[in-house]
Amino acid sequence: MAKTKNEIPKSRKSYLLKMAAKMLVQQGKKYMNNKPESRLTALVEQADTLVNHVGRLKGAAMKAVQTISVEGYDFLPPEVIQVLEKLQSQAPPIDSQVLIEQIKSELGEEKFKLLDNIHAEPMASASIGQVYEATYKWCKVVIKVQYPGVAESVDGDIDTLKNLLKAFFTVTQKKIKFDAIMEEARRVLKLETDYLHEQKSLI
Predict the structure, then answer these.
(1) pTM here?
(2) What is the pLDDT of residues 94-122, one digit of tens each?
(3) Are 129 and 63 in contact (CB under 8 A)?
(4) What whole-number distance in Å separates Cα of residue 162 and Cα of residue 151?
């Protein structure tokens, strides 16, 4: 089974705090001369750091930034939005072996053995999980598997990001309903991570 060399960091809060420290350093270096072009450069660099980190972390952190990329047209420069939008299509997939083991854990050994030809590469990769093709009793099936720990980390991710990113948006000097954006991301994530609820809504 091929590996992508990408795994979700074990300590989500620690990882987010390291990201915040890097963004703070970037902000300090560019704001020393207090020029408008330096402020824009700082925002773009910080947005790039944000995308790279939450793209690897996945879960609520990634979903929240995706939400900001959609809602941010009124208060963020287009150069920053362009960077944030990378998360909509360019987020790296997680190591497939991790997700195959997750499928085995969820199904149990006996049911897992009934699956054949699970593709090493995911059909799709999103903020909360990946989708794989396989064969079940000679029929092609699609398996949607959630990243480990994502459902349990929604509140922690949102609470941490809400505090960390307020400084990032303060420099835009515009009134932003930031808490409302983050709470909407929290609401959506709790629904999206509830696969049983999703199944019932499709019936």
Answers:
(1) 0.77
(2) 888 888 888 988 888 898 989 988 888 88
(3) no
(4) 18
